[in-house]
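The aim of this short unit is practical: by the end, you should be able to scan a pair of folded records and say something sensible about each. We start with the first protein, listed as its amino acid sequence and then its structure tokens.
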Amino acid sequence: MTNGKIFFDETRRILFAAAIALLVALVIILIASKAPLETFETFIAGPLSSKRTVGNWIDDSAKLALAGLAFSLVFQARQFALGVQGQVYAGGTVAAAIALSPLGLSWVSIPVAAIAAMMAGAFLGFIPGYAKAKLNANEIVSSLMLNYIAYDIANLFLRLYLASPKSGLTASEAFPASAVYPAFIARTRIDLGVVLALGAVAIVWFLLYRTAWGLRLRLTGHNARFAAYSGIRSNFIMVSAMTASGAIGGLLGALFVQGQGFAKIVVGFEGGLSFEGILIAIVARNRPLAIPFVALGYGYLRQGAALMGYRTDVPAEVIGIVQGIVILLVASSFTLPGRALLNRIMGGSSAARAPST
């Protein structure tokens, strides 16, 4: 099967899944809303209703892309570590500490905080990888437990050292302007984080498809036993993939706290977005270049659901149903309706055109 046919088939499957999910969402809105047409219009067209909502959509999509990228790296290695959320809190806390230090008054605070956040996230990604390689610890359990630890340590550090008394110990003071990502469009959340997210996508694609490390990682993911017979150090590949994934998660934490959306650190700043990266990675089939497009599509639905929750009588939880349906349809190897009939017709036509021998 050619790459073009694979791309066409995958795109068709994703669009079909999205259409089914939207149809289900419409049915729910028809049942739950007193003004279903206005509600559905808000859900579908709301993200484009103003410059601010467009900015929120783009910003959410950039964060979703980074979360999906982090999950896709470990999924490529056939590891099911779920520690991105903890890595986000670790990275965000370190970035906030730098932004609120004297270093935050200088422009170097942005690159220094990004590097420090990536190192913090990488360390948190390394732990379950090393435990899996050396102690055969289950990476799902260890990474999930680390999420709780990282979340509580981040909140403890915030309340003890970073919080402003005026906020009731739930948020820090606003960061200095020099420590906040500059906005490309005034009064929107379209800022430097979008560029960092796209840069991370390009770097991960290059690492996966243009380096020996990426080839070894993909071979390990396809068949770990064959990779071991080929002399590939699968444990090293697994640990390095989880560490690299952690670095991306840490960078995502810096995007959260230093972006135009917050410009400070607050309790629970990540809001559960990190776990939605699982959907992005699954739908994109762990392909780095597909992740930004999937993130844009899902980010649009997510923003539409949020606006629907604010402006209408239908809660935003509808997006959870849409998310579940899309995952079910895309993750399962379903066949598009009518495809077998179409193939039979096309096959019959080809046979009829074929010359007799």
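Turning to the second protein, read its sequence before its tokens, just as you did above.
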Amino acid sequence: MTRRTIFMVAGLALLAAAPILFPFTQFVLTIAIAKGFAALGVALLLRAGLISLGHAMFYAIGAYAAAFLSARLGITDIFAILVFSVAISALSGVLIGLFLVRYRAIFFAMLNLAVSMVAYSLASKAYGITGGTDGLRVSVPTILGMSVEKSSFDVVLYYLVLVLMVGVGILMHRYMRSPLGHALSAVHSNEIRLEYLGVSARSTLLAAYTISATLAGIGGAIAAVSIGHVLPEFAFWTESGHLVLTAVLGGIAGIAGPFLGSIFLELIHTFAVGYAAEAWNMIIGIAMLVVIFFLPRGLFGLVERITGGKSRKGEAKL
């Protein structure tokens, strides 16, 4: 067993024990991991050199899909909600990606931002469908047909989210090691050479964009059932900026990076608001500056230093 594996197992054990030792962390960590999924989607595109300033749109799509299935169609099973949200997010990723993956650099970033703000406006104005600015309420889901109290459901949801994080992490690890994953990195380094080799850069990016949207949708669905309410603000541009910041802060070299960044930000935010309500913005800003100046590869770079997981060529072992 490598030092990296031991470190990851210890981290998961710590996450599993955290709600038992400190019950208030259960909700905070659930939301942090939910946003970690979305940040992982952003990090995936960053590996291809593309910045999405509108990925909160897919986070909101996943959340609204969960709310629609529960409130409008009366299907409340948590597993059905997650599957439905994944399907809708993936479909949205394909349809929007067909248009956006033709663009690069600032045009890609700004078009993502523009489309997400259109989605935000539609969610805010379509009162008959989305509930407008009041949003939609999400009732407590059932678990394989069993109705449980909200407190019991939150416990089950937390450990389900942990299992989901591990499963998605393994799948993403295999994806990044696959020819399609290597082609994604090649889009950033030399797209023209990739085309000469007979690999379609547009198809590679469309696949990555769809996976990225799906990851954000998973996060949105988890947030919806955890909070119990969905609002148009889920798709607002500040949320998209937050996801980019989380991905960069955590580091894009490893699958665990965005989750580390999200958990770090949510914990700092919770403690700063609780103990220094007048200065929490400053505390978060200072914490971020420290990470940026001393950990240029993000928090995942710290993991690399501890575990010695960085290769001689400077590329991280995912």
